[in-house]
Sequence to fold (565 residues):
Amino acid sequence: MGGSTPSDGERDLFAKFRDDPDTRDWVVLHSLDIAKHRSQVSGEIDFVVLIPSQGVVCLEVKACRTLKVESGGWKYGQSGTWDMRGPFRQASEAMHSLRDQIVQARPELRNIVFWSAVAFTHMSFRMESAEWHRWQVLDQEFLKSRGLAAAVHAVLRNARRRLTETPSARWFDPNRQSPSPKEVGALVAVLRPNFESYESPRDRVARAAADAKKYTEEQYRALDFAEDNARVTFSGPAGTGKTLLALESARRAAESGHRTLFLCYNELLGKWLENEARSLGPAVEVDRIASRMLKVSGLNARDDRRFWDSELPRAALSAIRDDDGASFNSFDELIIDEAQDFLRGDYIDFLNCCVKGGLSRGRIKLFGDYERQSVYRAAELDLSELKDGWIPDLAVVRLRENCRNLPRVACLARDLGGLAPDYRKILRQDDEVDPTMIEFTSDTDQQRKLLDVLVELRAEGFALADIAVLSMTPENMCMIRARAAGAFVTNSGESPRSGGVFSSSVRRFKGLEASVVVVTDINDISSNEVQKLMYVAVTRTLGRLILLMNSQACREYKLLKSKQK
Fold:
């Protein structure tokens, strides 16, 4: 799809044209510019549909939900402007202008049937007028009952019948099967300079972000559903919009005047959340759990697993108790993202002191994937034990609709994660692009192939900041070697999208997303722990997914893919 930003009606028809098996031999051009329009400086046709042996339909799409017609003027939806031509005249003029352009360039194509129609994708249209034929109307009801391919076929079938009955149309031969495949090719050759036949990477990135935002906002109904519950957890697998739901919860808490503590575990996610929450004002304080404990305890960080797992939470809890909690539990509401990483007794005890009323009586919202995303360390507790021991009346809202990933990525995530139950629904439409698997034989070979991938992505039009290279190992050696080669500006700092290809371990990137994700250092995907990490890695992408695997992992991956079919 090219040109200006398409309406949701155009997107819907685009997907139907693409996915309907009856359109397999059609050529469908979207958003075709007309440089030589009959009555305007220039014009545009939403869809030009070339059907072999039948003809050409120029389709105008109106995605409005309300329509007003007065004194010959048309007003679509809430628009403040009136269209004095109307959609049928608009489509007809565009069709005749296009035909004139084609016949001028290729006179031998003059006897191909051209006709126009108007699609009202979101409403029924029952108006009748001498200005159009009823069969030129493709409204919501007709499209649902007949399907798009049959509806467009009907336009040309009726157009050919009309021409047969019109004495002045002596040029039309009803027995001639036109356009032939060769003539379709000739039509495309004339039109090609005036349209963009593919969706550019920039458009794909913008559409992916818009899709994620749209479908996540639809998930807000889960917050509405739980509005009357003071203590609730939203439980769902990766891609179900939990982090953005947590942000929306923080926004609602701020609007209600609640002083809110918003915690997460991951450093990169914490920095991103802090930046996103700035607009919410001082009522919302975003922090990492480790950072919070350091502030409370007064200790200095040490590179020691035992320090983080036990000494720090106990010191922080002791400091709160020594202070009688007066300085620390002044928050009206506690929101925790990636809550599965907090399910340890010492951490829960600390959180119990962070909110008025404690966990059992305070306002609590937890967002977590309690099934597969606890990748930092093994949780000591499960969700049922959290309820039994600390929050007896904790309401659980299940999120099962994937609003981030494309279907083929979501299916891979499902198989890697062993999701049971599966996603109830994958909201984004299939782009028919499988995740790319690239086999490497050595560290040097992997480095070279990673650089080749980055070069290809740049050649396709992706910006460096669209790309995240995630390593299955903490050392991230493949990207370190690639960076040393000096071929790309890279960013391994505090935040993605701040310039250059972002590189990180999978664990550090958990909770975040990127338009293109390249996963490196995949040496084995047979173990449960590695599959959990892979599940996290693949669900970070809004669009493209590229996997660099050694030979053993490739065999395991192909076996996994064969189970999907």
